[in-house]
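Continuing the batch. This is chain 6 of the set; chains 1 through 5 are on the previous pages. Same settings as before, nothing changed between runs. Recording input and output for traceability.
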Amino acid sequence: MEAMIANMLKRFESGALTRRELIQGLAALATAGAAASEVAAAPLQGPAPAFTSPTIDHISIQVTDLPKSIAFYQSVFGYKIVSEDKPNEIVRLGINKTRVSLHHKAPYELIDHYAIGVDPFNKDAVTKHLKAHGLTPEENIDAGFHVKDPAGMRVQIVQADK
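Output for chain 6:
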C-alpha cells in the first residue's frame, strides 16, 4: 500500500493527478485497508459469510473525456481494453481482467463504485448473508449487484478471480 500512496503523491506533485483525485484515491485505499483491518480484528457478527477471501476486484470512475482517460490508463499503466459497452459509454481496462471501469457519465471525476470479489459468488447465498446484516442488495447498469456501505458508497459484489 505504501508504494501505491507514494505513486499517487508523485503523480500529484508532478501535476498528473489533481488534489481531488489524490484525496479520492487515498480515501479508497484507506477504506479498503481499514475494512480489511476491521474484519481481521473484529469478532464475526451474524452468520458466517457464504464466501471466503474477499478481494478488491475493480473500481469504476465517471469521467468527462473517455478517450483521454482510456489513453491515460493505457500509457501509464499498460492496461488494455478488456470490454466495452458502447451504448452506455463504458470502457473496462486491465491486463487480463477489468481493474478500472471508465464511464462517461455525470457527475464527473468521481469513483462511482468499487467491487469486491468473493468466492464462490452464489447470488442467493450472498443475498441471504447481506440481508442478515441488514443490507438490501440492488442491481443496476452502473454498479451491478451491490449494497451501500455506511457512508453511502456503492460496493459491487462479483465472483473473485480464481
